[in-house]
């Protein structure tokens, strides 16, 4: 792939960055040679009630346990709010940009403090205690951040369920972690449309008898059904309690939150993160990866329903005293320029989004971007999937006007924070590569027998030692934790992703190993073939899977979405096959191409290749867990139009 295009560190960025090339080399080496000393020092970046004396106790074998800073005590909400009051009480903590472009507001750290304390008191008043689970099912409104921090303040464990999930998915997640308290709103707003959150929560709670209270934010003012005694209005409750709530003293290893993974590869797992190590790691990565400087406006477009929203909208930025933007809407409403209008309106300096958003905006051409200024932008980020070089270049040249480095951050719900990424002042970028490991992270590439491969190579991506942000267990199922992550390759954390390491030591994520295709004995990552297809000027998006093939073992089945205005023809089909053959080689030429107006994606925008594999193999009766699909009708359409009707 585009190994040969290289974007060196920009001198003007390196000059002011926290970490330049030399510092990266020095600190990385320290962090690997003496992790206890390195993290023992870094842990001091947050405030401890009782300082830790023990840094790390980890075993990746046997029972598997992971502990960091484990004799220290602290409170996450005190770190994200209270400790900034003296120095930046009047600084904006959160900028809220509504779905409606006419609606926005600024919340200072002082105001944030009052809101969090009041809500924490509401939780206590209604019986929520340390260790209890609270389910949050809210739109992207400031109350979502207040709710997370209020839980952290009283020591309750939050479990956020993305507002786009159905009543059934919500019910499953409430029941799985046995939560008795749900926070929702009357309705959500997305792209001008109302989402009936309270009605969904009512249905979910009807099947989750453990729930005692539903706290409801009045957001749109829409009508809602009401269950007396169970339902509580947020605005009434917070007015009824004091604005003073001392933070609970938590052990570093007390749970902070549970978050279910997005379900790309199977049934979602209840990932459990704890208090001290998570916060150290989230705040440190936020500062260095985005090179966040005091006073800058930082915008991550994720939803708080995903881990990206947890670590890089709320916990990391607020622990660092940053100004973080929360956007309620979608990139295409009221029009396709919305992201860039918001950037101009709030003078955003750092912008962090997903390849799926970039690809969908790219489909519409440069015009909608170029009519905005974007001159405030300094750093761009990408997360969630491999970013195709084509999309990377568009992001860099069109959105960033060639001025802003792109940090392509590879990580997972399980990792709590970013593990492989460029640091903008230290690591030059190659489009499509997540580049190099963050401090303390030791990626290893192993073959299918678990043997570590050296140098330039390709295989299964594992991490050989722990970092503070690592998940501690699957909630209520430690055995599943051990099985899923530590049993495939003994002694390593297995990420489930495949990767290639090039001659410069750069990492290229090739997709999930379950998605690897084996054509006539040649193993191929899906990312590479997809990137070749997307590089064609008429292709907007592509998903590639293997399907049973008599001669080759597996054939290559490509689902292709064309750019706006393009129509599918037999000629174009041939052209695409020839194109891939030229870009990668004959071995990668697609055997079948299905025109797909839409692709099955998770609610977080990731392509669910496991479903596409089933469709390609004509096994559409056993699609597996589809509860996290964004739009189930896409699947019906794909089944009807599948290519190999045999
Ligand atoms: P599930 O684990 O339930 O199947 P999921 O893996 O999609 O869901 P997440 O934890 O949200 O849930 O996503 C992590 C995965 O996303 C990574 O394992 C990787 O496959 C992909 N990913 C994230 N960021 C990047 C990136 N910068 N480059 C390549 N892949 C990425
Ligand atoms: Mg995963």
UniProtKB/TrEMBL annotation:
Q: What cofactor does this one take? A: Mg(2+)
Q: Which UniProt keywords apply?
A: Acetylation, ATP-binding, Ligase, Magnesium, Metal-binding, Nucleotide-binding
Residue limits of the Acetyl-coenzyme A synthetase N-terminal domain? Answer: 24-80
Q: Which class of enzymes does this protein belong to? A: ligase
- List, for all copies, the residue spans of the domain called AMP-binding enzyme C-terminal: 528-606
Q: Which Gene3D superfamilies match?
A: 3.30.300.30, N-terminal domain of ligase-like
* GO molecular function list: acetate-CoA ligase activity
List ligand-binding residues for ATP.
Answer: 384-386, 408-413, 497, 512, 523
Q: How is it modified after translation?
A: Acetylated. Deacetylation by the SIR2-homolog deacetylase activates the enzyme.
Q: Entry's PANTHER family? A: ACETYL-COENZYME A SYNTHETASE (PTHR24095), ACETYL-COENZYME A SYNTHETASE 1 (PTHR24095:SF14)
Give the protein's recorded name: Acetyl-coenzyme A synthetase
């Amino acid at each position: 792939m585009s190994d040969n295009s290289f974007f060196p560190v920009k001198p003007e960025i390196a000059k002011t960055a926290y970490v330049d090339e030399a510092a990266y080399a020095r600190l990385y080496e320290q962090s690997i040679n003496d992790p206890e000393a390195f993290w023992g020092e870094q842990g001091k970046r947050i405030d401890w009630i009782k300082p830790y004396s023990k840094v790390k106790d980890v075993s990746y074998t046997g029972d598997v346990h992971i502990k960091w800073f484990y004799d220290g005590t602290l409170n996450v909400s005190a770190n994200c709010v209270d400790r900034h009051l003296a120095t930046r009480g009047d600084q904006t903590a959160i900028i809220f940009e509504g779905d409606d472009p006419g609606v926005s507001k600024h919340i200072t750290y002082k105001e944030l403090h009052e809101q969090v304390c009041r809500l924490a008191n509401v939780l206590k008043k209604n019986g929520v205690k340390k260790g209890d689970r609270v389910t949050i099912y809210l739109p992207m409104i400031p109350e979502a951040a207040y709710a997370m921090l209020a839980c952290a303040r009283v020591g309750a464990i939050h479990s956020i369920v993305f507002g786009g999930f159905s009543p059934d998915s919500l019910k499953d997640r409430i029941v799985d972690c046995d939560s008795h308290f749900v926070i929702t709103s009357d309705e959500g707003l997305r792209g001008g449309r109302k989402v009936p959150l309270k009605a969904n929560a009512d249905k979910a709670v009807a099947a989750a008898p453990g729930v005692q209270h539903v706290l409801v934010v009045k957001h749109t003012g829409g009508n809602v059904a009401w269950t007396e005694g169970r339902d509580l209005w947020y605005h009434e409750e917070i007015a009824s309690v004091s604005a003073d709530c001392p933070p609970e003293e938590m052990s570093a290893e007390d749970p902070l939150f549970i978050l279910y993974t997005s379900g790309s590869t199977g049934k979602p797992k209840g990932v459990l993160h704890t208090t001290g190590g998570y916060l150290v790691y989230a705040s440190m990565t936020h500062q260095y990866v985005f090179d966040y400087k005091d006073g800058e406006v930082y915008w991550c477009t994720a939803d708080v329903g995903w881990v990206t929203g947890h670590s890089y909208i709320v916990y990391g930025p607020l622990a660092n005293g940053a100004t973080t933007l929360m956007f309620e809407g979608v990139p295409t409403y009221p029009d396709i320029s919305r992201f860039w209008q918001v950037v101009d309106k709030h003078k955003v300096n750092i912008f962090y989004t997903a390849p799926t958003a970039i690809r969908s905006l790219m489909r519409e051409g440069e015009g909608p971007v170029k009519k905005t200024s974007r001159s405030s932008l300094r750093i761009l980020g990408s997360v969630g999937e491999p970013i195709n070089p084509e999309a990377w270049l568009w992001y860099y040249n069109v959105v960033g006007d060639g001025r802003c480095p792109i940090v392509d951050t590879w990580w997972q719900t399980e990792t709590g924070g970013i593990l492989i990424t460029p640091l903008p002042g230290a690591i030059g970028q190659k489009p499509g590569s997540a580049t190099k490991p963050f401090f303390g992270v030791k990626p290893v590439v192993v073959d299918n027998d678990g043997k570590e491969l050296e140098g330039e190579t390709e295989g299964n991506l594992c991490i050989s030692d722990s970092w503070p942000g690592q998940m501690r267990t699957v909630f209520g199922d430690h055995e599943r934790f051990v099985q899923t992550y530590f049993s495939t390759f003994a002694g390593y954390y297995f990420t489930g992703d495949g990767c290639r390491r090039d001659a410069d030591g750069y990492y290229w994520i090739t997709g999930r190993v379950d998605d690897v295709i084996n054509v006539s004995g040649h193993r191929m990552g899906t990312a590479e073939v997809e990137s070749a297809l997307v590089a064609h000027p008429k292709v907007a998006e592509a998903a590639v899977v293997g399907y049973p093939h008599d001669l080759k073992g597996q054939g290559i089945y490509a689902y292709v979405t064309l750019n706006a205005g393009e129509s599918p023809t037999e000629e174009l089909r041939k052209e695409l096959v020839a194109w891939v053959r030229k870009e990668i080689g004959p071995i990668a030429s697609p055997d079948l191409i299905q025109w797909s107006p839409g692709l099955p994606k998770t609610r977080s925008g990731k392509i669910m290749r496991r479903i596409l594999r089933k469709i390609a193999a004509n096994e559409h009766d056993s699609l597996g867990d589809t509860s996290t699909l964004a739009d189930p009708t896409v699947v019906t359409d794909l089944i009807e139009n599948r290519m190999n009707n045999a």
